[in-house]
Structure formats: C-alpha cells, structure tokens
Amino acid sequence: MGERELIGVAGLALMFGLLIFRIPVGLAMIVVGIGGNYALSLVVPYLRFEPYMKQFKSLLWSNMANYELSVVPLFILMGYLASRANLSRDLFHGMNAVLGRFRGGVAMAAVGACAGFGAVCGSSLATASTMGRVALPELKRLRYAGRLSTGTLAAGGTLGILIPPSVALVIYAIIVEASIIRMFQAAVVPGLIAVAFFLLVIMLSVRLNPAVAPGVETFSSAERRVALQRMIPVVLIFGSIILGLGLGLFTPTPAAAVGVFLVMCYGFFLRGRHGGGLNLQGIKSSLLETAVTAGMIYFIIFGAEVLKTFFTRSGLPAALAAWAGASGLDPWFLLIFMLLIFIVLGCFMDSLAMILVMVPFFWPALVDLNGGDYVSTDTAAYGMDIDHLKLWFGILALVVIELGLITPPIGLNVFIINMLAHDVPMSETFRGVVPFIGIEVVRIVLLLLVPGLVLLLPGGLSP
Amino acid sequence: MRKLLESTITVWALLGGVLLLTIVLVTTVNVGAFTLDRIARLFDFHVPGLSGYEDFVRLGVSAAALMFFPYCQLRRGHVKVDLLVRYFPPRLQKALDILWLLITATIAVGLARYMLAGLGESRSDHVMSPVLDWPEWPFYAPGIISLILWAVVALTQIGLGQDTEPKRG
Questions:
Q1: Residue in A54, A258, A410 nearest the CB of B31
Q2: A258: which chain B residues are within 8 Å (Cβ-Cβ)?
Q3: DSSP label at B128?
Q4: What is the pLDDT of residues A258-286, one digit of tens each?
Q5: What is the ipTM score, two decimals?
Q6: N or C terminus: fewer CB in 10 A for chain B?
Q7: How far apart are CA A188 and CA A185, in angstroms?
Q8: At A250, phi and psi to the nearest 5?
C-alpha cells in the first residue's frame, strides 16, 4: 500500500472518529473529502487541490439536479401525506378487523400494516414511528405484553427499508448503476418472506406463552364492514404503486408522483366525507416534514459524493479490490465478512450513510472476487453474472442493515418505539426484538443459500 | 429577529414544497397523457406527452432540494451519531456543537461562493437544458440563497444549546 492509499485509510478512520463526536454525518463526509484531497495534493503533486476545488462550482447543483433521485422527496412526501390523512390508521384497522379475532392477531395486523405502509413510505424509521403511534394504543388496550408489542413494531418497522419503494434501494441502485425497477422487483420476495417470518414469530410467541396476548379484538359485523370498506381504497392505492413498480409498469418517479397525487385526492375525499383526511394544514405539515427528511438525505448524498472523489483519487477502493482478488481468500468468506461489517456499523451509523460510504468500497472488491465485469454464470465465484450480483448483494446488504435497526446497543427502531411506549422499559423492548433478530438471521442465511429468492422476479419479469 | 428568520426559512421551505407539488402535477399530467395515448392508439389517435418533462423535473428538484436545507438545519434534522457525546460534560457538548455549527456555516458560505461562480459560468457558456432548451443558470439562484440562509441559521444556533439531548444513533 502506497502513501496515497494510506491517506485514504487515514481519511476513513478520521471520518468514523469524527462521527463519534456527534458531527452531522453529511458534514463529516464533506470535511474528510475536502481535507483528504488537500492531503493528497501535498503527497502526490499531480493531484492538485485548486483544480479539484473548482468542481464545486457545479458539483452541488448537478448532484441535486438528478432525475433519478427526484423519486426520493416524492416518496417521502407520499409517506407523510398518507400518515396525515390517517391512511396508516385505516390500513391497521382493516387488518385488525380480519386478524384481530385471533390470539396475537392485533400484533399480526400491525406487521401487515407496517408492510403496507412501507410500500408507500420507503423509510424504516417513518414506518416504525407512524405504525407505532397507530398500533401501540390498541395493543395496550388489549393488554398485550409490552415486550411483544414493542418488539413487533420495532421489527415490523424495518420492513419499510426493503419493501418497494425504498429510498435506500434507490440510492444503492444509483451507486452500483443497477436498474431501480429491477432492484424493487428483487426486494419483493425477500420482503414477503420477512412478513411471513415475523407473523410466524408472533404465532410461536403466543403459542408458547399465551399470557403475552390475553385479549382479542371484538368487532360487530357493522364495525368490521366499515373497517374493511375504509381499508380497500388504501390497499388499492398502495397496491397499485407496489404492483406497478414490481411488474415494471411504471418507472419510479412517475409512480411516486402519481402516488402523491392519489393520496392527496383520497385525503381530500375523506375530508369531505368524514371530516378526517387531509386539509391544507395537513399538507403544509407534510411538506415541512418532507423538507427535514429530504434535506437530511440530500445533504448525506452530497457529502458522499465529495467523499467518493477523495477515496477514488486515493486509489483505496481499487487497491482493496485488487487485494481481495489476489488474496486467495474464499469469496463466500469475504462476502460474509462484508455483511458482518454492515452489522457492526449498523450499531452506530445511519443506514443511508452506511450504503453511501461502504458500498463503493465493497462493490469493486465483490466484482473482482466474482471474476470480473464480464464473467459468465458458469465461471463466476458466486454463480451469477454482474447484473444479478448487483441485485443479490443489494438485497443482502439491505436485510443486514435492517437487522442493525433492531440490534443493540443503538437499534434506532427500538429507540423510536420505546419512546412511544412510555411504560415499557428499554430492556423489555430489546428482549422483545430478540426472536425477530433470530428469524432475521435465518432469513439472511436463506437468501445467501438460495439467491433465486432474490432473482426470481427480476429474472422472470424483465425483458 | 429570530422569529423573522424562522418565518422566512419556513416560507422558503414551503416554496420548495410547492415546487415539489408542481413536479407531482406535471408528472401526473404526463402519465395521464401516456395512458390516454395507449388507449387512443387503438382508435388511430395520438395524445402527446409533455415534451421535456424530465428536464422540468430535474431543474425543479435541483431548486426544491436545496431550498429544504435551511429548514432541515433549523429543525436540527441532520443525522448524527450519539454514542459517546451524551456522556460528556455539558460544556464540552456545547463546545463541540459550536465547532460543528461553525464548520457548517463555513462550508455553506464556501459552497455558495463556488455556486455563484458556477452560475456565472453557466450563464456565460449559455448552458441549456437538453430538451426544453431553458437556460440552467437561473436554477442556481435558489440554491445560492438557500446556502446563505443555511449558514445564517447555523450561526444563530450557536450557543442555543438545542443539541444537548440525544439524536439519532
């Protein structure tokens, strides 16, 4: 490793060091990116600093003026509007009308509603907090154990990051230059497996210890009919978006924009009919919430761009890829090692920042390990070509990052749900997510061993 | 004074939001036109989509995204890791917060300066959007204003001590 690469390593270490001192993630990336490029210019004369800085004349603007990324604020806005229009509540009540009569059914309805809401929201944190507000009071009323209710909602919230559309998937697809639609298609089956596994965990928990879910929901037939009637339009809106994307009928930006339009129209319709739904104040609040979330994401994206230039100029990703290719280590061992790094980083780093910082390092190494850019399926180390590898690795990385959202010591979703459930101690919530962590590990192993689960839809449906 | 700044930044973010809603409307009309076209083609008719729609989205979102930055700062929305600092003495926490706010303001002003130069170059080079043929330089202006507002917000937050409670991990 030469001086250039060493500066790259020092930059990476400095960035993690700065993060520990509570610097905003995007800012840390920019500081290290610019500082690292300055350090490189001192060591390598031809990597001059002034010409590098001149790219800032257009770098920020061109980063924002990106058609593919326009989907990000639109999906965020759709999630907030759906939440303000109480579509999340209608979805949960409808699911509850179907499942609530069974023991543990309200918790299962919460998982189903999380999956449905994740289809319009694209963010795990927003899914967890929105569904937490809706479902926790119901679970408490029916005397569900705090451990089961908070654990279920923290785990259910993670579905938002995987079930399409997902902001994290869009960003990953842009980094590795994969088709966003195919990424969304690849996420459908693993997302459904997660839902099935979470339901299984709830069923087993209730079977083993019936005291954790003592009450069942009783609906009169009129109440059930109303709940189902109010859920159907929500399912149609959310379903048309997820199916349209999954089947490749829409591209992401039109799907998101039409989704925003439909949610707004339905919100106004609800306002006129029941007095709930959306009003101007609701739209204003949704726009301001979108400003905070989208501003945060765009800042990290820009920071990652600055950081990427530094790492590329340092030659570190290429050196790591060359080392991985020549190391003689088992490709499967290195893949699992990469996933473990994601889990460790997930304990203290934001998921989006993790994707933006680590994927540019891991991806070239993975391509090298697999046998290069033009490898055929027969000779590839992972048994797939580069296009399929992009999809498979992206889903594996996201599932692992999901796991970080419910893993101690940080587990962001656990904290969000615990803040909403005032009377449940944090230790109980962490105990509640343990079975879900266990089943997530099973899912990761399954996806590692059977890549076909990821590749089924994009392979079968795309031209 | 602070109230005026907060109102200005809130209105600025809402303007960005209105721009986003305009993108929604234009995209929906475009999707509607394409859908109608598919049906109309069965009867030998043609319904045109909006020419240059992707250009419009690209230019619109470039302004909207940057218009969200000052409001995000106002609400302390930028993601940070809080593993260790929450255990530090309050004075050290405050000192770190001031340092990061100063760096934020410096970088925002620096970016605004470079973007202003970028606007000048884009204007003198007559850079146009590929399909709509609109000049791109006017779309730099909201970004420059946003960066200046961002720096001002960061500077006014120094010493307010809003950052002493745990944020995201």
A1: A258
A2: 27-28, 31
A3: B
A4: 999 999 999 999 888 877 789 999 999 99
A5: 0.93
A6: N
A7: 6
A8: -115, 155
